[in-house]
Design the sequence.
């Protein structure tokens, strides 16, 4: 596909469709997939037979790699990250990887520095501190 | 990365299903047809979360089948080049290792593993630093960067998928995503190991 050559998530070049789409953090996906699995359990004796391998693998993955388990904490993470002018994609990478230092955050999401939105180190540090507070009190 | 997006699909139904349970039948057929599929454009459809709208049915000339345009919301997983994510190592050999992030498989070549890590064969093949402090083996959790993605159209003649019909733009032709990745950059590598960062 010729479009793929230009793709680069590090520069937020992920295509208009995905730039505008709602992005989901692993912990948010875990809530959605778990809910769906529970619904299936009510209507069938063997829910595992009803779901695709893609669903199963995704559910296992997001359960394993969710930084926040409590739904309230998950909501708070999104709320806090939404205060800093981030693209949906950037917000979710940060929420998934939970970088501990400003240097790490910039390495994980290089686009926060390059898109001319004046994210100075102080703002990034404050954001990371706010995130880690949620983790402490989860 | 996971996304919540709206997709459209034309569902074709045999008249025997017309009746009280038409809507339920359309939805259950939609789930059977779409969940678990993968396309180059949207990635893997993990789960349909809701049906937004089912349009008026159109009778197809000559067959009697009816086509319903269905708009639905779903969770998809779409990997991007340049994306950094966490994955579980599934296999290790001297060429590198395979890792899985949800439905996607990622291969990290030994050229893109830090030079101070060496392959060790045996019952549990692994890559280990010379001082033994960091080890990558089956079931290790690693943070990696995707450096390339490729979609394979399986089963379908590629010539057909080039001229996609308007009603099914890159929709549900059976295909799979493969990725290659690296752990050579800063802040990449084994997770939960305090010595790697």
Sequence:
């Amino acid at each position: 596909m010729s479009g793929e050559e230009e793709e680069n998530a590090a520069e937020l070049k992920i295509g208009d469709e995905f730039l505008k789409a709602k992005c989901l953090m692993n912990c948010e996906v875990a809530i959605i997939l778990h809910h769906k699995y529970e619904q299936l359990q009510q209507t069938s004796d063997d829910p595992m037979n009803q779901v695709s391998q893609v669903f199963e693998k995704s559910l296992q993955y997001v359960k394993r790699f969710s930084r926040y388990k409590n739904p309230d904490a998950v909501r708070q993470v999104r709320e806090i990250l939404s205060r800093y002018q981030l693209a949906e994609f950037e917000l979710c990478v940060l929420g998934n990887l939970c970088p501990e230092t400003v240097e790490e955050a910039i390495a994980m999401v290089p686009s926060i520095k390059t898109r001319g939105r004046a994210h100075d180190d102080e703002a990034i540090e404050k954001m990371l501190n706010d995130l880690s507070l949620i983790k402490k009190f989860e | 990365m996971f996304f919540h997006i709206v997709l459209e699909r034309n569902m074709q139904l045999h008249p025997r299903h017309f009746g009280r349970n038409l809507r339920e039948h359309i939805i259950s057929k939609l789930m059977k047809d779409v969940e678990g599929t993968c396309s180059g454009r949207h990635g893997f459809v993990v789960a349909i979360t809701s049906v937004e709208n089912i349009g008026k049915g159109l009778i197809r000339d000559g067959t009697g089948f009816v086509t319903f345009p269905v708009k639905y919301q779903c969770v998809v997983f779409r990997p991007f080049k340049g994306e950094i994510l966490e994955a579980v190592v599934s296999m290790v050999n001297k060429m590198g290792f395979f890792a899985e992030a949800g439905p996607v498989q990622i291969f990290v070549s030994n050229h893109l593993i830090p030079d101070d890590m060496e392959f060790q064969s045996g019952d549990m093949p692994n890559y280990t630093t010379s001082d033994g402090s960091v080890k990558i083996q089956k079931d290790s959790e690693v943070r990696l960067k995707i450096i390339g993605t490729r979609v394979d159209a399986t089963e379908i003649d590629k010539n057909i998928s080039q001229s996609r019909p308007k009603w099914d733009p890159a929709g549900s032709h059976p295909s799979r995503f493969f990725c290659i990745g690296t752990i050579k950059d800063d802040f990449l590598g084994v997770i939960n190991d305090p010595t790697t960062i």
Residues 26-65 of chain A form one domain. The mean pLDDT of chain A is 88. Residues 26-43 of chain A form the longest helix (18 residues). Chain A has nine helices and one strand.
